[in-house]
Amino acid sequence: MKQHVRDTTIDTISSRCPECGKPITSVIVDQGGKVYQRPQCSCHESTGSLIFSDADLYRRLDEWNKLVFPDAQQAAPAHGLACDCATASHNEPCLAVIDITNRCNFKCPVCFAEATGDGNHYFLDTKLVGKMLQSLLDRPVPCRHIQFSGGEPTLHPEFPGILRTARELGFTHIQAATNGSRFVNPDYAKLCEDSGLHTLYLQFDGVNDEVYLQLRGQRLLDKKIAAVNNVEKTNMRIVLVPTIASCVNVDQLGPIFQFALEHSSHVTGISIQPAAHVGRVEVADETSEPFNLATMAREFGRQTGLTRFPDDWFPLNSISLISRALDRVRRDATIPPLSDAHCSLGTFFYVDDNNKPFCLSSFFDLDRFFRSMAEITPDADRGIIERQISRIRQFGRLSRCFDKRKAPEGLTFQRMLRSLEGWEDKSKGRSAGWFRRGFNGIFVAGMHFMDARSYNLRRLKRCIIQYVATDGQLIPFCNYNAGARLRSAEELTRLENDSSPRPTGCGHADGAVVQGDQPMQAD
After folding, report:
1. For 101-142, how does the pLDDT look when each residue is reduced to its tens digit (9 = 90+)?
2. Is the dihedral of CA 295, 419, 372, 360 positive or negative?
3. What is the architecture, at CATH level 2, of domain 91-320+331-360+442-497?
4. At 348, is the secondary structure helix, strand, or coil?
5. CB 35, CB 25: distance < 8 Å
6. Which pTM does this prediction carry?
7. Taking Cα atoms as reference points, which of 278, 367, 288 lies closest to residue 321?
8. Which residues contact 119 (CB under 8 A, 6 or more apart)?
9. Quick one: CA dihedral 378, 439, 192, 105, positive or negative?
10. Domain residue limits, the chain
């Protein structure tokens, strides 16, 4: 294969050919300061695909991987996985996902699930959902964070009952990936809160209807705003989830953050998802550079003026250093986010009483903090007094990362740590009086899911977001939706075994499912 003169090889990975799907080796190269993945397939020649628009940042993320995985191992061995090692993660899930239906009341031009309101569809039996939830609790390290997805999960006629089941089983974070259409009804929002829903993972692509016309095929802004307003009448929280496509809505990063800021009492985060070539994608522009995490970080700073590139951006797996340190101090066992550094990139803002945002790294030395966390040692063999002295010393070392002069008024190091604890433990962030004890904040992160052109087995084996199949298997997100595309086989099984009654309506008084502005009768 012809080699470019300026190319520098960064890495060699196990992958799949984007044309025929067979296992191959791919080379990661620095070409003129940008990173490309070039498949080495004996049957198909490829010039490669751009996966990262800044090679220096890509290498910086490699350094984080070395810190998080100091032994250069993929991750801890998987426990009780029934699926083949080539399609499994070596991690326990930090968040598990259950698709409870493939039915949707939208038909978006961009949809990795290819969900529609047409043709065959299923609604998972509630008893089966209960078994799938229990399988997560029966794992060696129980997973208590669950996201219900689809399709549109709120179309399931027993969705409130499913929420109650998850709550009764003891799940501490219950989330719905939703287009928000049913939350336009305030009574439905209240019903979901009463049933146990904690967070809406809300599709939110921008603040003008031109964006929604291109990405979703209809005007939706008024409905999105109505859904947010209704959730603000409850104790639920919202994570805004924009799918960003080149030449469509890259310019919406700043406006979306401004919207989040205006609703920061309930909007706790923005989860930015670069559009991947998976499922149904009708707005792909092959002439433009694919939107990726490096572009996201640079563009966010340019549009908001609130972050420096790349200094204020950290991979999600850096948080695992905090989790590890807390485990050592508390002698506890949690599930740290041991994802690959190239899967995600984020930054955090504190918001003062005047709704002014402060980037955490502008007054807190995050790099030093994370590395100090990595150095915290277990104290299980020490006496009580010795353990307390050790913790005081470690606390003092960490507090030196905090610059009170640059911090928002009223934020102390202790209060900041309390806020971080509320971010780690979602139930604390929803508790009564939280805003007096903690401090308002917004987490902004991008998660770049793989497609056929960026498939990387190392990233797959470090996956922390995993789907639950009906037989209890756990499937990494990017193998469920890309790579082996195991979603197709799983949905076929569900359709063949579906004996659930066809609802006369999905909770609407008129027995209709909403299709944009027009009602569509349910089957």
Report:
1. 999 999 999 988 888 777 789 999 999 999 999 999 999 889
2. positive
3. Alpha-Beta Barrel (3.20)
4. strand
5. no
6. 0.87
7. 367
8. none
9. negative
10. 91-320+331-360+442-497
